[in-house]
Amino acid sequence: MKRFLICLLVFCTSGLYAQTIDDILKVSYQDYEGTARFAAMGGAFGALGGDISGISVNPAGLAVFRKSHVSFTSSLNNIYNSSGVAGIQTDDSRVRAGISSFGVVFALENQSRTKWNIGITYLKKNNFNRRTTVKGITSTNSIINYFAYKANENTDFFNPSHLNSYDAFYNFNPLDWDVVMAYGTHLIDWDGNSYYSVLNYGDRVRQQINSLMKGSSSEITFNVGMNFNDKLFAGILLGMTTLNYRREVAYREYAHENNTSDFDRLIYNTDLKIRGLGINCKVGIIYKPIQAIRFGLSLHSPDNFMYPYKYVEEEDNDYPPAMDNLYSASLEAQYKTDNMPLRDGSNNDYYLFFERIKTPYKATGSFAFIIGNFGLVSMDCEYVDYSRIKLKGSDPTDIFNSDIEKYFKNTVNLRFGTEMWIKNFALRAGYMHNQSPDKDYDLSRRTYSAGLGWKFRQLNIDMAYVRTSNTDYYTHYAGADGIIENLKNRRLSLTLGWTFRSN
């Protein structure tokens, strides 16, 4: 899915440009894990309420609780990635355990027709862990040729004297460090008129790419819910979102045995970190015209991510709080001849251009049908416009915002859930379909889920199995072979809950 436009601007922004806007999409995406009951029913709780995790979908769900409640959920994730490029397939699998949610609700006792509840919850919003390995590729599309092509697109900008200066990294922004390093390691050189690759015509390379994503985002919420005569439920939520995202890419090329140039191998590493704290507000209502039917509506403000981190470690620093978003890169080149030993070019950690991320607004409409004490069915319809993601900061933030608006779009996400009770046992199932936020590629997600529940007096134990599948498309630089990732995430969740009186 990486964007490489056929114009001067693109080749001056390189792979990091495309990687950045796609990484911003990933950190703006929400894929709640939640309690086992919430997960088993596809997260369709906008009109139901009465669940710790459902409060984050519709804060009015807090007011549905009739008694105080506390719950804790842990999950085991198996992330499977089958990656293919140029007809070669590579599989990888990772297993991660963690906390999906916990929270407590206090049902305040009073004699009026309006009842109040308060709650504090934690919910994991997204899990970024994934690993991709692509290897054993023979291709004429060497990244060295890309470095030379990019430099030749603007030889005035990539002036050899600037590239060769002692403080070359200070003359360019991080989007152009690849050319700086390629020139410093003699992978490209200047003949007086243009840049050329160290590879001779007809030389081929073997490529290997290892990409590692890790981290997560989560939300801590403070909630107030109001129950008006068991007909109308309303709620408001103030949330604090934590974001910790990291992508490391190790790219390698090895000379083919029949090559005629002195090039032997290169190692190109990039490391992107995005960390921040965000705040949001959510409001919602649930209306119950009759006992069997419920309607829900909720509105979510954007997460406004920032991080109180100083741009420069100086006592007189006057920079405002900003996100901690660091990018570093290194490039090593080895040659066959003794007069050209291992060459290394690298930079220190630098800040990127954006200081804030503003995620999209959300609106969710919901419906639920309660079948007495036997069971229920529910549905959520969620609207999100990913073209509304905004970055704030210095140049070229405006370019990023323009292309976010150009390439991303609004989505309508559907969630379905059902539950059936047999005495103290519950059977649950759910389905979720998230439309693709990308205009050109199908990045839609499909989630199937099922679960069991058991209730004994004040104790409830719930289990869920969730299976999510989606596809990702991208290249690591312009002209490279496209990579297709078929992703599957299998998750097992266990929730322990306890109902109690708060007075």
Whole-number mean pLDDT: 86
Shape: elongated
DSSP, total strands: 23
CATH superfamily: Outer membrane protein transport protein (OMPP1/FadL/TodX)
Percent of residues in helical segments? 10-25%
Strand content: over 45%
- At the first level of CATH, the class is Mainly Beta
Keywords summarizing the entry:
12% helix, Porin, mainly beta, two-stranded antiparallel ribbon, 14-stranded antiparallel beta barrel, elongated, 8 helices, 503 residues
Give a structural overview.
This protein is mostly beta strands. The model is unreliable at 1-14 and 309-317 (pLDDT under 50). The protein is elongated, with a radius of gyration of 26 Å. The chain has helices at residues 8-11, 14-28, 36-40, 54-57, 143-152, 160-163, 177-184, 397-407, and strands at residues 68-85, 88-107, 114-127, 130-139, 188-190, 195-197, 205-228, 232-255, 263-290, 293-300, 304-306, 324-335, 343-346, 350-351, 354-358, 362-371, 375-385, 390-393, 410-422, 425-434, 445-456, 459-474, 483-500. It contains eight helices and 23 strands. The strands form two sheets. It has a 14-stranded antiparallel β-barrel. Strands 5-6 form a two-stranded antiparallel sheet. The chain starts with 7 loop residues before the first helix and ends with a strand. The protein has one domain (8-500): Porin, CATH 2.40.160.60.
